[in-house]
């Protein structure tokens, strides 16, 4: 399995404002790059915080990229995966529509009524007691044939993936905005590391829109 984290940060390192509302940091060319990365992936993964804040669709937008996938014998859109310990994904969330297969990864703590509601719209994976056990959940996705995973945020999930040693590559667009705010989400929130920090090896630097895309490979710990 290969896991690529993709995100867009402001010049001061924020993924959105302190209001945690969707905020376009990428420009048109970076969103097109994200679309190509989606099209090259077997699944696009987000945390439920991102679903609640952004209501993303997580589909491939470019018709030609979808057609190419179909010609290659793949579904037009990659699968979508929501990491959602307690089943808070709303049943009318865009990510649960019929455009692609959707998995919702729950923990044992997800109430039965939420499980029943979500089971009509998604494949449910249960792993972990209070929070989703990401190693187990991703192993189940791999058993279902999903090898190339793209993670689109947010900061809580991305931190946990680094903590679990599950990230192979980070692609970060750094864009031309200052957002500020000590409580605004960053690339890796969670509890933070105090020792044994994951380290990265710079693989590429590309100018795009009015910013840069930094591609880093994650070194083995
Ligand atoms: N700029 C970008 O590239 C970008 C991308 C995505 C999201 N965002 C922004 O990020 C914010 C949402 O991010 P967030 O950090 O609040 O939420 P998130 O999307 O990271 O989801 C976190 C939630 O996932 C669930 N979860 C279950 N198991 C978990 C585990 N093991 N580890 C971590 N989480 C687990 C928990 O319910 C947790 O609250 C929004 O403001 C959104 O607009 C920005
Ligand atoms: N690459 C990127 N640049 C940004 O400036 C930004 N705000 C996001 N945020 C990720 C978030 O999940 C978005 O909501 C989805 O990128 C929307 O996806 P859809 O168009 O609904 O498929 N991602």
Provide a descriptive summary of the structure in words.
The protein is of the alpha/beta class and 221 residues long. The protein has helices at 28-39, 48-54, 63-71, 112-119, 134-143, 155-163, and strands at 2-10, 43-47, 79-83, 102-106, 123-126, 148-151, 169-175, 200-208, 211-218. The chain has a single domain (2-218), classed as Dihydrofolate Reductase, subunit A (3-Layer(aba) Sandwich). It contains six helices and nine strands, in the order βαβααββαβαβαβββ. The chain has a nine-stranded mixed beta sheet with strand order 5-4-3-2-6-1-7-9-8, sandwiched between helices. The mean pLDDT is 97. Nicotinamide-adenine-dinucleotide binds at residues 7-8, 15-16, 20, 22, 25, 46-50, 53-54, 83-85, 131-132, 134, 152-157, 160, 185, 189.
Tally of distinct domains = 1
Helix content: 10-25%
- What hetero molecules are bound to the protein chains? nicotinamide-adenine-dinucleotide, ligand HJL
What structural category do the secondary elements indicate? alpha/beta
Assembly classification: single chain
Count of helical stretches: 6
List unreliable stretches of 5+ residues: none
Sheet with the most strands, sense and barrel status = 9 strands, mixed
Biggest β-sheet: strands ordered side by side in the sheet? 5-4-3-2-6-1-7-9-8
Share of residues in strands: 25-35%
Describe the global form. Answer: globular
Name of the level-1 CATH class: Alpha Beta
Pathway: Cofactor biosynthesis; riboflavin biosynthesis
Domain Bacterial bifunctional deaminase-reductase C-terminal: 3-214
Protein name: 2,5-diamino-6-(ribosylamino)-4(3H)-pyrimidinone 5'-phosphate reductase
Subunit structure: Homodimer.
């Amino acid at each position: 399995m290969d896991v690529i984290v993709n995100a867009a940060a402001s010049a001061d390192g924020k993924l959105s404002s302190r209001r945690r509302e969707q905020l376009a940091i990428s420009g048109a060319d970076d969103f097109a790059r994200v679309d190509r990365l989606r099209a090259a992936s077997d699944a696009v993964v987000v945390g439920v915080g991102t679903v609640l804040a952004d209501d993303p669709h997580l589909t491939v937008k470019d018709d030609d990229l979808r057609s190419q996938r179909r010609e290659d014998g793949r579904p037009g859109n990659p699968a979508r995966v929501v990491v959602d310990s307690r089943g808070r994904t709303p049943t009318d969330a865009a990510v649960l529509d019929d455009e692609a297969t959707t998995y919702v990864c729950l923990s044992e703590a997800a109430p039965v009524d939420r499980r029943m509601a979500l089971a009509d719209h998604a494949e449910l994976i249960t792993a972990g007691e209070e929070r989703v056990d990401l190693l187990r959940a991703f192993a189940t996705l791999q058993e279902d044939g999903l090898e190339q995973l793209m993670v689109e945020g947010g900061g809580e999930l991305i931190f946990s993936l680094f903590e679990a040693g599950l990230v192979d590559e980070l692609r970060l667009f750094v864009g031309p905005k200052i957002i500020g705010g000590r409580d605004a989400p960053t690339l890796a929130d969670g509890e933070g590391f105090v020792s044994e920090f994951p380290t990265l090896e710079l693989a590429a630097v590309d100018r795009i829109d009015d910013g840069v895309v930094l591609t880093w490979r994650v070194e083995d710990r």
